[in-house]
Amino acid sequence: MAGKTLVLAVSVSLVLAAAAGVALAKEPVNQSALGGIAIRGIDPVAYFTDGKPAKGNKKFEVERNGAKWRFVSAGHQDLFKADPEKYAPQYGGYCAWAVSQGYTAGIDPQAWRIVDGKLYLNYSLEVQATWETDIPGFIRLADGNYPGIVAGKRSEARS
């Protein structure tokens, strides 16, 4: 009986916390639930070198920030290892516009843009069109929101 009461109390606490708007911490990298593959297995270096997304290969994999990053070649893998900050997408590969609004969302590998040498991904081409209406403003908001999102703190996003 005591076990059931404890389970009920924990369940009620979780519901009340959610209702109160307590945010749960997010993984620092957008990754698959199974296997922990970053950004849907897309090679982040390819956006810079080939000007388009490319599916990475399991043979060329690097672990970083709790996720597995895949690359199309050993050359791309080496570039990433030498300077991961240059090639890793901003906000852990979550949708840049969503982060600017205070939450995370997945990505469509086709919805991307390099701005000032940094890779930004978006949820969809439609969301990307919205993001492109004020890229500097949305980047400013997302830069402020992302640390709190990863830490599980409620954001103060404003548009």
Automatic annotation (TrEMBL):
User: Could you tell me which Pfam families the record lists for this protein?
Assistant: YHS (PF04945)
Q: Which residues form the YHS domain?
A: 45-91
Q: What is the annotated signal peptide range for this record?
A: 1-25
Keyword terms: Signal
Query: What is the protein's given name?
Result: YHS domain-containing protein
What is the organism field in this record?
A: Candidatus Polarisedimenticola svalbardensis
